[in-house]
Amino acid sequence: MITDVQLPEPKTPLPGATVNSDQGLLMWISSVDHKQIGIMYMIMTLFYLFVGGLLALLMRVQLMMPENTFLAPDSYNQLFTMHGTTMIFFVLTPAILGMAVYMVPLQIGANEMAFPRLNAFAFWISFFGGLLLYFSFLAGGAPDAGWFSYAPLNQTQYSASPGIDYYCIGLLLSGIGTVSTAANLAVTIITLRTPSMKYKYLPVFVWMVFINAFLILAAFPSLNAALAMLLIDRQLDGHFFNTDAGGSALLWQHLFWLFGHPEVYIVVLPPFGVLSEVFQVYSRKPIFGYPFVVGSGIAISLLAFGVWVHHMFATGMGNTVNSFFAVSSMLIGIPTGVKIFNWLGTMYGGSIRFTTGMLFATAFLVEFTIGGLSGISFAIVPIDWQLTDTYYVVAHLHYVFLGGSLFGLFAGFFYWFPKISGRMYSETLGKWFFWLFMIGFNMTFFMQHILGIIGMPRRVYTYPNLAGYSLLNLISSLGAFLMGGSMLIFLYLLYDAIKRGKRAGDNPWDGYTFEWLTSSPPALKNFTILPPVYSFRPVHDLNHPEIGDYQKSDEEKYGTKDTD
Amino acid sequence: MEKFSQLPYFLSPASGQADRIASLTTYFIIAALFVLAVVIGLLIYVSVRFRAKPGDGEPKQFTGNKVVEGFMIGVPTLLVAVFMYLTIDTMANVMPAPAGNQRPDVVITGHRYWWEASYPGTKAIVANEIHLPVGRKLLVHINAADVIHDWWVPQLGAKMDAIPGRTNYVWTTIQKPGVYEGACSEFCGAQHAWMRIKVVAQPEAEFRKWVAQKEQDATTQLSASAQAGAAFFSHQPCGSCHRIRGTAANGNVGPDLTHFGSRKIMLAGLLENNPENLRKWLTEPQHVKPGALMPRFGYPKDSITVLVDYLTALK
Ligand code: HEM
Ligand SMILES: [Cu+2]
């Protein structure tokens, strides 16, 4: 039986302690509490999800029929650039940071982040980066060269409006925030774990965030450097990427994708962690293959830096270079793909509750598999030579980002909602939202695989009326509206839960990790006492002493021998 | 419902290279559908079989199974190994390095927002409607004049980026005569959507005849109105961007117009080439193709009429 308890950081005063709720908005603005900052991240994310979604709907209206004239080409190009940029940098990236900032201290039994003020700084600088990016609409035109903004199209002689300057500065600011938070999370996990929580007892979500922090620290500097160089080109007549003056167009692609490919994993590893928590608790079983799930996360993060050229197979780098990156890209598919079976294994033999969170998690398994398989098709270089830069890519990237990352984040959102808000949400509304969103999503993007295969390039503001084009595009646009409509249900669900939701209690799902020991929502000081940790699901051990993991050998706990 | 069986592209490759890629794609799709079916099948099975029922206690807590994990890693690794082999083999076949000094059969240059083709060893230079001979392994060089574009004719094989300051190549061995459609596949600015490609594949003899015809300078047999158009053209800035071989016009910002009258399409696929469309374009270019690099000159109606007569006469 678990007896002895530990006190988390007994002597350190909390930096957030001066904050209190009668300060209203000032409380939020001045807060350095990791939970409040996490919530602000999530609100910002949700806001930009709506903005980015609105831009997408406008695009889909334009593409609903061939040779439509709803939008001018210029406006369309600004919209898709802002849509992609928003979704990557101001939805998915802050969403994973927000969840991590909120949950990591709770899951490791800490009361704060290692650097609470840096935490607040990072949020606000990202926030202002986003505002600045959107200010470009008022300042003479939004960026219009795509979210990866290829050289030399990103040079002043080809894109004269100041949009791309705002792109550089906006992303640099938010990039500074992202890197700071990554460092902060890594240090927090290293230094503030409750003393008995060894690395092998870290919850899977914490592991993924930990790995991810290093991925961010290695990847973002490449982007930040490229953006600074681009700014020099545009403002000071530099010649890094200006081909008319002897610069290199491919240099930009190398720098960008050296960041850009790891970024894809940056926004998917934490959702992998979230899903691992969700599958465990709703199946009432520990994760299948814990050492594998963690180890493959590490493998992915290392391999992620060896695959960037797979975005450049059609640039004529030669068969030798292409073969190397084809092989590394296929290899990274293995640890990623195998995780799907880890989660299926977690469900196997369980006692599964299909809450809204679990529905998103199970749907993720299918959508992410589709996205992963179409991803492998790009590693097969000759297929890439046909399909890159077509709608097949658009389908692929949405299956990964939306069907993967975003579904994972939704699963986590519903899982943790009772903890964060203290209220239960309506499962009926949740299920309506889930089904409409999921059907809309597949309607929108499945068709686009076919559009790409039959020859429709991406980033076109219109298309000729060739066989199949109009029908498939119409279905796709209708699906987008279904998805957009379902988001309104989501908003109503939030409103309903906060207004009328039942009190959640501390641990409504019978969860396994430390956040479920706190009150819902957690008090400013998360923990006063903590039980010692003997496995990666300490609260399960506490609540189910008769089958608790602490009684087991490592062999039984992890399915493998493990000494430490 | 349109006839999907008639969708060209992948489903009916027309070159040896596209053919190889299409069969690799078919193998991949089969493998992918198999994996997807396994995942969906397992998911449905566990979801139905292990759904919580009222009164269930905690299920048996187990955390792994060596045999299952072995399969989980082994089967994907095997699949990946097979596809690695096929990938490298197909690459070598589709994109072998050309001999260093091999003269290309055609040089394609991407411009905002149109395509230029020249045929080394001949004087022929054409825009947008590109003729190629069938039955011969052609070396195609690909360049760009301004930003990155991408040459893609799905039925003819691999796409390839056109990058300023760099010469790329693709091979194509066209198997049957026909008209093959393609499009610029790398975002290049406002009118990326209307940078389409039309390749006309012909038997060798017909192709030679076509080249010989394109080598000619512009016709000088013009009606009175067309002559007036020619005079007008030569006094306006048109020639600083367009070329009409045999006249002083020698620009290269816009498409070559030497044989404009014999083209079926204009504006890289946006419109059919007829006098009415041409008139529209010359009157309001920024309405017809907003963002295209041709300014509106605001010429009077009758000047436009003689210009149209001149350009359509350029067969
Ligand atoms: C209602 C939902 C959505 C719709 C209808 C939609 C639609 C589109 C469309 C039409 C494009 C332009 C494709 C092209 O021509 O290249 C696009 C691009 C993109 N979308 Fe979405 N999208 C949606 C949601 C999302 C979400 C949730 C994300 C990520 C979280 C996302 C990420 C992207 C990215 C990164 C691009 C590439 C932009 C670029 O090419 O620069 N989208 N989307
Ligand atoms: Cu182009």
From TrEMBL, chain A:
The chain crosses the membrane at residues 37-59, 79-106, 118-139, 164-192, 204-232, 252-275, 287-309, 321-345, 357-381, 393-417, 429-451, 471-495. It catalyses: 4 Fe(II)-[cytochrome c] + O2 + 8 H(+)(in) = 4 Fe(III)-[cytochrome c] + 2 H2O + 4 H(+)(out). Residues 545-564 are annotated as: Disordered. Keywords: Cell membrane, Copper, Electron transport, Heme, Iron, Membrane, Metal-binding, Oxidoreductase, Respiratory chain, Translocase, Transmembrane, Transmembrane helix, Transport. SUPFAM superfamilies: Cytochrome c oxidase subunit I-like (SSF81442). GO terms for cellular component: plasma membrane. This is Cytochrome c oxidase subunit 1. It comes from Spirosoma rhododendri.
Automatic annotation (TrEMBL), chain B:
Residues 224-315 form the Cytochrome c domain. It is a multi-pass membrane protein. Its main location: membrane. GO terms for molecular function: copper ion binding; cytochrome-c oxidase activity; heme binding; oxidoreductase activity. It comes from Spirosoma rhododendri. Keywords: Copper, Electron transport, Heme, Iron, Membrane, Metal-binding, Oxidoreductase, Respiratory chain, Translocase, Transmembrane, Transmembrane helix, Transport. This is cytochrome-c oxidase. The keyword Transport applies. NCBIfam families: CoxB.
